Protein 1
Amino acid sequence: MVRLLLPFALCVVACGPPESVVEDVAPDPVAGASTYQQHCLRCHQENGTGQPATGPALAADFNASGGPLSRTDEELMRTIRLGRMGEIGAMPPWRGVLSTKQQRDVVAYLRQEFEPSSSVLTD
């Protein structure tokens, strides 16, 4: 019996906990701000630019036209959950660290706090 359960247990550990079902509750941007401060601020910075005072950019700019906030909420949730490799570097996956509710709250906070520029660059 133990031999049958061991592969299943290893798969659960390797894959992380299953995604929890989120009740039909509106996302909370205030809670999202707290989660952002705790988990996202170090790379994305307080102003959402991903650019520290000195040195290279650490993360995507939430204020950039065509940046992360041009994606759907579902796409943002996927990036938070699974991480992402990009031009700047790698964003770690937060699945198993942040609940689905926390991820939704962060997306609500990002949409409320940051606004991509609508200016169009011309040659």
Protein 2
Amino acid sequence: MADHAPDTDIPRIAISGWTKTLQAFAAKISRFPAAMPTMLCAFSDSLTPPRQIVIAGDPARSDTRAMLREVNQHYLPNTVILLADGGNRQKEMAGMLPFLEGIKPLRGRATAYVCQNYVCQAPTTDFAACRKILRAPPETL
């Protein structure tokens, strides 16, 4: 843990970089303090790799809507949430995000695919399993 700030999982280099950034912008921040929350959000985002959540299912079905509600009730900073409905929109998105081509509901049920740092959890149709994955602390850099 010598390469981490005391009592944190934050790498020292991240703290050092952000300290220098805050010092460089201190005058502007003092004139426009409303910018500080945005800078803190950027700092927070820089500490964890982004997470992607894809819900595969028909948006007209109740299980898909319920899975989306489950995902949306969690605070998930630095997370992209997509709906893969198997239709034209998914095909269009797959042109830019090729991994979406193979995303589909399992056994005809709404399915959550949760990925972070280019590694995906096993897809799940179980709400409790999805909740457990989402509540786990995100991996730090």
Protein 3
Amino acid sequence: MKINKHVIPINVATPAETKVTCESCEACCCRLKVMLITDTGVPNHFIETDEYGSSSMAQLDDGWCAALNRKTMMCMIYENRPLVCREFEMGGDECIDERTANL
């Protein structure tokens, strides 16, 4: 069997190579349903309660989080954001998955 010595390099970006910063974020995670499981001080006008009594972040008709500033694409309640948002790692696996699905 003859082995081909000509190798063609393929540039493939993997999640580890994908750099996500505040400037390049695009806030894709702000389209996810965010359940409120602890009290972090989210203002009441950003909270929706369903028929079962579960609380979540309010979403606008287009699916974006109501606390997202659409001009800056930054959270208007960052210091009081839900625990789920605090634990969502920018550039982590879930972040990359949402960016891949939405960009």
